[in-house]
Design brief:
alpha+beta; five-stranded mixed beta sheet; 17 helices
Length: about 700
C-alpha cells in the first residue's frame, strides 16, 4: 500500500511537470510587438505573454499614446505579462503593489485571421481596468482612477469580441489597484476565434458549476446527516469543509458569484475567500480526529485553533491591502496542516485501519492541487485554479468513506437488530411459557385456596354450629333437667312415696321432650350455619300440596280436627300452573311444622285449612301457601316474635295443651328462607291465626 501511495505521488508530480511543459515553441511579444503572422489564432487560441509597453502612473488612451509617440518617439518601458508590477524596477527603485499604469501591445495577424471574428478572454485583473482594441473602448471593469478614492475595485472574467480591420491589432489597457498587495495583469489573456473561445469559456463555466454544485450538495447533505444524528461529528466537519469550499469555488476561477450577482461587494468577496482558506486546516483536522480518534495530538489541535483564530481575526478586521500580504503565510499554515495529517495517515495506514489508505491518497491529490493554487496566485505556477477539482476528488472519496462507515454501521445495527429480535423472540417465548406456568400454578393455588376456603368455611360453620348447639342445649335443657333432677331427688328422699309413679311419669315425659328438643336443636343449628344441603328442582306447587294433604289428612283428622285443601283459582289456570324450585322434603317439613303448630293450639272440632294463591310483585310471580287454624289466635304484639328460637306462647283454653319446644317456627323460617321465600303470620288474637309462605315461581 505504501508503494502504491508513493507511485501516486510520483505520478502527480510527473503530471504537473508534463502539464507545465509547453508542447509547442513559445510565442512571446518583443518590445510590445507580438508577431502572429505564422499562427492561425482563430483555430488555435493563444495565451498572450511577453513584453508589453508599460506607462507607470499614467492613464493613457490610444490617442494619447499615439500623440506621445509622434512627439517624443519611442521611449517606452517594457514589462513582462502576465505579471504584477510589484517589485518591478523603475529608475532604480522597486514598485509596490498599489498604483496605476497603462499597458500596450501590438499584434500582427496572419492573412487567415484578418477576416475572422476574434475574441479576447480576459481573466480577473487587479483590480479595475479599461480595454481598448484598435482605439475602440470595448470593456471596463470597476472604475479606474489615480487614487484610492477614485478607484472602485471589481473582479470579473470577460469575453470580448472584435473584428480586425487590418493585419494589426492594438491592445491598450488601463489598470489601477489601491486595495490589494499586487496590481497589474497577473493572469493570461487569451486570443482566439470568437466561437472557439466562447465554447471553451462555456465549458470552463459548466465544469466549475458542476464542481461547485457537487461540493455544495455534498456539504448540505452531510450537515443534514449530522442534524439528524448528532452523536457522530464526522459529517459535521466534513459537511462544513465541503460547503465552505463549494462557496469558495464561486469566488475563484470564472467567478461564478459575480456573474450571477454582479453587484456583490468586492471586499466581502475577498474576505470570504481568505476566511475559508484560514479555517480549512482546522476543520479538516477535526474531521480527521473524528475518523481516526487519538491520532491528532491535543497540543496540535490547541495550536491549530489558536493560529486559525488569529488569522481569521486579522482577515475580518483589516482591509484587503493588509491581509492579502498574509497569503503566503496562510498557504504555509494550510499545507502544514495537510502534511501533519498525511504523516498521521501514513501511521494509520501502516496499522491497516479501514479507509486510511484512501484518505492518504486523496489527501495527496488535494495537497498537490492546493499547493499549485498558492503558487499560481503568487505567480510561481503556470497552471491555473486546480484546487476545486482536487477538493472534489477529495470530497467524493471522503463521501465514499463516510458512506462505507454508515453502511457498516447500518449493517451492524441490522445484524444487532436481528440478534436482538431473536433474543427477544426467545424471551417472549420463555415469558409466555413462564406466564403459562405461572398461570397454571396460580390456578392450582387458587383452586387449593378455594378448597382451603371451603374447608375453612365448613369448619367454621361446623364450629359455629357446635357452639350454637352447645349454647342451645345449655340454655334449653337446663330447666327440664333441673326439673327431672328434682323429681329424682324426691323419689330418692321419699318425700311423697304415694306420688312416685307420677314423678316417674314426669321424668319419662321430660326425657321424651328433651330427646325431641335435642334433635330439633341440632337440625336448627345446622340450618343456621348452612350445613344442610338442598336438592332443588322445579315442582308444580299444586301437585306438591295435594301430596302433602293426602299424607297428613288422617293425622289431622285423628286429632279431632277438620283438614281442608283449597287451591281455588290456581287449579283452573291449567296453562299457567305455578312452578317453584324447591327441595320437596325440606319444604314439606316446614309446612308440617306449621300444621303441627295449628293442631297444637286448635281445640277438637276446629279447622285446619291449607290454601294456595298466586300473586305478582315487581314482575315476579309468587306462590303463596297459607295454613289457617280456628284456634284462639296470637296477640298482635307477639306476631313478630313467634319465629324466634325458644319463643313459646301457651294459649289458654286449649284442650290438648302440649308443651312445645319453641323451635318449630324457627326451623320453618330457616327452610323457607333457604328457598328465597318469606314466612309471616296474621291473627286478631281471638279467632285463630294464618301463616303465609311466599315462594318465587320459576314459571
Amino acid at each position: 500500500m505504501l508503494y502504491i501511495a508513493a507511485a501516486v505521488v510520483v505520478g502527480l508530480v510527473a503530471s504537473y511537470a508534463v502539464i507545465s511543459a509547453s508542447d509547442s515553441p513559445k510565442i512571446e511579444s518583443k518590445e510590445g510587438i507580438l508577431d502572429l503572422t505564422h499562427v492561425h489564432v482563430s483555430k488555435n487560441p493563444l495565451k498572450l505573454q511577453g513584453e508589453w509597453a508599460f506607462y507607470w502612473q499614467e492613464l493613457l488612451s490610444p490617442e494619447d499614446i499615439q500623440i506621445r509617440s509622434v512627439r517624443e518617439g519611442n521611449q517606452d518601458r517594457w514589462i513582462s505579462i502576465p505579471g504584477s508590477w510589484l517589485g518591478y524596477r523603475l529608475d532604480g527603485q522597486q514598485l509596490n503593489g498599489t498604483g496605476f499604469a497603462t499597458f500596450r501591445v501590438v499584434i500582427e495577424l496572419s492573412e487567415q485571421d484578418r477576416n475572422e471574428r476574434l475574441a479576447l478572454r480576459l481573466p480577473t485583473i487587479f483590480h479595475a481596468y479599461k480595454l481598448w482594441v484598435n482605439g475602440e473602448l470595448l470593456e471596463e471593469v470597476g472604475v479606474v482612477g489615480q487614487d484610492k478614492s477614485g478607484v472602485t475595485p471589481h473582479l470579473e472574467t470577460k469575453l470580448v469580441f472584435f473584428q480586425p480591420e487590418n493585419d494589426r491589432v492594438e491592445l491598450v489597457m488601463q489598470v489601477a489597484n489601491f486595495h490589494h498587495k499586487r496590481g497589474g495583469i497577473t493572469k493570461y489573456i487569451e486570443l482566439g476565434g470568437s466561437d472557439l473561445l466562447a465554447v471553451r469559456t462555456n465549458l470552463r463555466i459548466a465544469a466549475e458549476m458542476f464542481i461547485t454544485a457537487s461540493l455544495l450538495v455534498i456539504g448540505v447533505y452531510h450537515l443534514l446527516l449530522f442534524i439528524l444524528r448528532r452523536k457522530d461529528r464526522a459529517p459535521l466537519y466534513f459537511g462544513l469543509f465541503t460547503l465552505l469550499f463549494g462557496i469558495r469555488s464561486l469566488l475563484v476561477g470564472e467567478l461564478l458569484l459575480t456573474q450571477l450577482w454582479p453587484a456583490f461587494p468586492w471586499g466581502l468577496q475577498f474576505k470570504l475567500e481568505y476566511l475559508i482558506l484560514c479555517s480549512s486546516g482546522y476543520i479538516i483536522t477535526k474531521y480527521f480526529d473524528c475518523i481516526f480518534p487519538n491520532y491528532v495530538s491535543r497540543w496540535f489541535q490547541l495550536g491549530s485553533r489558536i493560529v486559525t483564530s488569529a488569522f481569521c481575526i486579522v482577515v475580518a478586521v483589516t482591509p484587503a491591502l493588509i491581509y492579502t500580504k498574509l497569503l503566503l503565510m496562510i498557504g504555509v499554515m494550510v499545507v502544514f496542516h495537510m502534511i501533519y495529517l498525511m504523516v498521521g495517515l501514513a501511521r494509520v495506514a501502516t496499522q491497516r485501519m479501514e479507509g486510511a489508505l484512501i484518505f492518504l491518497l486523496v489527501s495527496v491529490v488535494a495537497l498537490v492541487t492546493v499547493i499549485n493554487d498558492f503558487l499560481y496566485y503568487n505567480e510561481w505556477s503556470l497552471i491555473g485554479n486546480t484546487s476545486p477539482l482536487g477538493l472534489l476528488v477529495f470530497t467524493i472519496a471522503q463521501m465514499i468513506l463516510l458512506s462505507l462507515r454508515f453502511t457498516r454501521a447500518a449493517s451492524n445495527e441490522e445484524r444487532n437488530a436481528r440478534e436482538l429480535q431473536d433474543v427477544n423472540n426467545k424471551l417472549i417465548e420463555l415469558n409466555m411459557n413462564l406466564e403459562r406456568t405461572v398461570q397454571e400454578r396460580t390456578q392450582a393455588l387458587s383452586a387449593a385456596h378455594d378448597d382451603l376456603r371451603t374447608s375453612y368455611d365448613r369448619l367454621l360453620h361446623s364450629e359455629q354450629g357446635r357452639k350454637k348447639l352447645l349454647a342451645y342445649i345449655t340454655h334449653d335443657l337446663r330447666m327440664p333437667l333441673s326439673s327431672m333432677l328434682g323429681y329424682v331427688e324426691a323419689v330418692q328422699d321419699r318425700v311423697k312415696p304415694e306420688r312416685n309413679e307420677q314423678y316417674l311419669k314426669y321424668i319419662q315425659e321430660n326425657t321424651i321432650r328433651i330427646n325431641r328438643m335435642i334433635e330439633e336443636l341440632s337440625f336448627l343449628s345446622h340450618l343456621e350455619t348452612g350445613q344442610v344441603s338442598y336438592r332443588m328442582e322445579p315442582v308444580h306447587v299444586i301437585h306438591f300440596l295435594r301430596g302433602f294433604f293426602e299424607q297428613y289428612e288422617l293425622v289431622v283428622r285423628d286429632a279431632g280436627l277438620h283438614f281442608m285443601l283449597d287451591i281455588g283459582d290456581a287449579e283452573d289456570q291449567r296453562l299457567n300452573l305455578p312452578i317453584v324450585e324447591m327441595d320437596a322434603p325440606r319444604l314439606e317439613q316446614a309446612l308440617f311444622n306449621l300444621v303441627s303448630n295449628a293442631m297444637k293450639f286448635t281445640s277438637r272440632g276446629g279447622l285446619v285449612r291449607i290454601a294456595l294463591a298466586v300473586d305478582e310483585v315487581d314482575d315476579t310471580r309468587y306462590a303463596i301457601i297459607s295454613v289457617q287454624d280456628s284456634g284462639t289466635g296470637i296477640p298482635s304484639d307477639q306476631l313478630k316474635q313467634i319465629f324466634d328460637r325458644n319463643y313459646k306462647y301457651d294459649r289458654p283454653g286449649v284442650e290438648n295443651g302440649i308443651e312445645g319446644s319453641g323451635l318449630g317456627l324457627a326451623i320453618c323460617r330457616e327452610i323457607v328462607q333457604a328457598h328465597r321465600g318469606t314466612v309471616r303470620a296474621e291473627s286478631d288474637g281471638t279467632t285463630g291465626s294464618v301463616f303465609y309462605v311466599s315462594l318465587p315461581c320459576v314459571l
